[in-house]
Amino acid sequence: MLCHFYGAYKKVNFQNNSFKNNELSILSVMRYRFVGVFNLIFVNFICMPQFICCIIKAMTTQNTSSPVDNIDSDSHLIAEESRPRGGRANEIRNVLQEEIESGNLQPGTILDERALAARFSVSRTPVREALQQLAARELVRIAPRQGVTVSRLTISQVRSIMESVGELEALCAKLAARRVDDVLRKALDKAIERCQDAAVQGGHAEYAMANTYFHETIYSGSRNPYLAELIRNARRQIQRYRIRDFQTKTQISKSLKEHQQVARAIQEGDESMAANAMLLHVPSGSSGFSEFLARMPMSFFETDAADH
Predict the structure, then answer these.
(1) Fold classified for 84-151
(2) pLDDT of 295-304, one tens digit each?
(3) How far apart are CA 224 and CA 135, in angstroms?
């Protein structure tokens, strides 16, 4: 009897264990299948597109620059972006304006945007802005389908400007003679001494600087800053046509002699003599202007038909 119950118990227990083992097996199978399906979805629909995009980008991108070039390019872009808007264009404009007014860029010279962009290590946008600013100041001329050139003046325009400079300089010398004092007399002596040293020991560049110093001394002595600024602006417009001044010892000697006459008249307080001496010094008269034109290439001048 006991054996019968014991056998029945083992049979039932075995069946229960078999059921539990089967249940665990089913759960394990379902778990593994779920993980497999999840991995399949993740690889096919999430990772694979990104992987394919990376391959396509790597195949289609052609990077020919070296790492050093990339670093330099990035640094250049960062430096350009850190500048204030219009700052680079203003810098380029200032450089070109000085070169035009000093005669380093002669009238009629072609200005190429690409060459200027390469020279200043910028894109063409700030170069274009700088050229537009120079055009507004009538220092360059922008013509459709012809490009950009340094502006040329007509002979009549040059004569008009030089006549204006001569009259304004004469008025400035007259006012300086009227208001002369010991300070101005000493300043004129110093200016004449500087011109003499440049004439003897220096060249045309040194004498040109001494000439500017002499005239600035008279501007200051006139005690009329508005008049002085008018003269400076007019001289800036005409300066690119004065590049042949002081090229020979004869020209320098003539200029020095005229400086001495102007300085003496101012120091003596002779207004009329100071004004007349200055008029003779500035080449605005018929003979002086003819000598000036004889030294200028005709390619520097615009034809009268183009004068607006």
Answers:
(1) Arc Repressor Mutant, subunit A (1.10.10)
(2) 888 888 988 6
(3) 30
